[in-house]
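in:
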């Protein structure tokens, strides 16, 4: 059994599973930071073929950060297998780095912003030093001014530049990056709209790779 960690949607309360044999059902238990159970869910799949994407939803009994999800997959022959995932993540609040038009070069005047962000990353790591395997993910985004292809390439270059800056300052944890262009806006707009909230780079500490947007473009986290 495999769980696509990039497709675990904590906000939408959904995950996707694949079994290596015909599927009977999938059960999940969602556990919060408090250690208490937030949800139990089960869904029957009535012999779905091996390799079929099996989507399971859950309804939490209260709002709380999810720290662990236990998943059990049952096949039609009575066998089952379980796996636990830890979708813990923290977005680092920060001041955005301003780039010159069409540039991915980090100007000297912007470095203090990154230094302040690095301090916040280190503080978060110290606070959660009991968690093993944390990585830093840098996600670049743009508004809709310019062509989608140009914005995608620019967001990737800027995300990589910031990721490289963190790595160059001696950050010991894994660092990965990806650019999403205008494919994941905070504020949905029409084309050629300069929306400041959509021009951003997210800094995410996580145990599992953050969920990737789905669509015509294939995205993937790239390790430095």
């Amino acid at each position: 059994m495999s769980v696509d960690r990039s497709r675990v949607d904590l906000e939408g309360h959904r995950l996707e599973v694949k079994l290596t044999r015909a599927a009977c059902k999938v059960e999940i238990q969602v556990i919060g930071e408090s250690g208490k159970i937030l949800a139990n869910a089960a869904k029957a799949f009535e012999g779905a073929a091996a390799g079929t994407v099996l989507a399971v939803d859950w309804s939490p009994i209260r709002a709380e950060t999810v720290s662990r999800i236990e998943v059990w997959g049952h096949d039609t022959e009575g066998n089952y297998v379980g796996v636990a995932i830890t979708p813990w993540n923290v977005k680092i609040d920060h001041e955005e780095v301003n780039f010159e038009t069409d540039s991915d070069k980090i100007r000297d005047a912007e470095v203090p912003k990154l230094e302040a962000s690095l301090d916040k990353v280190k503080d978060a790591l110290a606070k959660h030093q009991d968690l093993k395997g944390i990585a830093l993910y840098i996600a670049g985004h743009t508004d809709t001014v310019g062509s989608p292809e140009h914005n995608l390439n620019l967001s990737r270059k800027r995300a990589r530049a910031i990721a490289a800056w963190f790595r160059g300052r001696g950050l010991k944890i894994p660092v990965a990056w990806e650019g999403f262009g205008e494919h994941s806006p905070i504020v949905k707009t029409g084309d050629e709209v300069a929306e400041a909230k959509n021009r951003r780079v997210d800094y995410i500490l996580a145990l599992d790779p953050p969920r990737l947007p789905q669509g015509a473009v294939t995205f993937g986290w790239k390790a430095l």
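note: Residues 148-168 form the longest helix (21 residues).
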